[in-house]
Amino acid sequence: MTDRAELAKFLTARRGRLRPSDVGLPESGRRRTPGLRRQEVAQLAGISVDYYIRMEQARGAKPSRQVLAAVGRALMLSTDEREYLFRIAGENPPATGGPNRVISSATRVLLDSWAVPAYVVDASYDILAWNRMAIPFVGDLAEVPEDDRNMVRWMFRLPADAEPWSHEASVNFARSTVADLRATYARYPGNQALAALVTELLGTSPRFAQMWADHDVQVRRGHHKQIQHPELGPLEFECQVLYISDSDQRIIVYCPEPGSPTAAVFASVAASAAAPGAMCGTATHHDRATDTIPGARNPAWGQRPSAATRAATDGPYLKRVR
């Protein structure tokens, strides 16, 4: 149902915050009230002035999706504002094209400021950026082809008789990951890259196909992990999932209990990574093709780990203590 009164107030308020120069129009003399004129919004949206006036007066026909999209562009609405516009007009918001892969400078600052492993994944589980502390867990992803930095692909690439699949915790984690991927699949209908990933996994992994057929849906949340790292030994921490507003990206952070043996191990790794001449996993240049920030080899850990070790970030790849 269209909330005509709220729609009218919202359009009036958003129109009032814009100046002609904001939308590429010339300033044309003094204005009695701030903001764009109604005829200017109508011109920008490609609709009649009378039609737009009726929208702001809470009367007339229900606006179509095409009109709402055009008005949203004319008023330079943000993603959240556009979604609100559609909802108060009684329409479902248009789906976005696909998972956001652009890493903001604020996210980069967060990653580089933490002395614990942390990395960013998009909604389809592609790892987009990581800090130096994450390298012992995800490896040197700068040397991994960009289209192979997907955690779900790593997970289900393991053979059916691989040791991790014998652990209930590992299987449950994989199941929850598939359920989260299904939720993503629904958020981005028609996205070719996401559809290709699901199709690939359905054809290459009977285990994935079975879990996908269950139609479970679950958005990823934090969880407790106990693992046996091949170099660092037993580790125990909370794997926190921090959602980044406006991007549908997530920062995965390994949070040990203060004063615990794991906290001491992380502190030792951080000190080693910060030593003079040590390489870190946050190179200063950008991959301009995707705007991701690649990592670099950490000499303390030798050659790049295998795919199985690399995938230990958030999957059933390291031997679990529990």
Description:
It is elongated, with a radius of gyration of 25 Å. α4 (65-74) packs antiparallel against α5. It has 13 helices and six strands. The N and C termini lie far apart (51 Å). It has helices at residues 4-16, 38-45, 49-56, 65-74, 79-88, 105-113, 135-138, 151-157, 168-187, 192-204, 206-213, 261-273, 307-310; strands at residues 118-121, 127-130, 223-229, 233-244, 249-255, 319-320. The longest helix has 20 residues, at 168-187. Strands 2-1-5-4-3-6 form a six-stranded antiparallel beta sheet, with helices on one face. The chain is α+β, with helices and mostly antiparallel strands and 322 residues long. β4 (233-244) and β5 form a beta hairpin.
Question: What's a concise summary of this model?
Answer:
The protein is built from 13 helices and six strands. By secondary structure, the protein is an alpha+beta fold. A six-stranded antiparallel beta sheet has the order 2-1-5-4-3-6, covered by helices on one side.
Indicate the topology.
Blueprint: H1 4-16, H2 38-45, H3 49-56, H4 65-74, H5 79-88, H6 105-113, E1 118-121, E2 127-130, H7 135-138, H8 151-157, H9 168-187, H10 192-204, H11 206-213, E3 223-229, E4 233-244, E5 249-255, H12 261-273, H13 307-310, E6 319-320
Antiparallel strand pairs: 1-2, 1-5, 3-4, 3-6, 4-5
Approximate shape = elongated
In terms of per-residue confidence, which ranges show pLDDT below 50 for 5 or more consecutive residues?
276-322
Average pLDDT score: 81
Class by SSE composition: alpha+beta
What does the radius of gyration come to? 25 Å
Using DSSP, what is the number of strands?
6
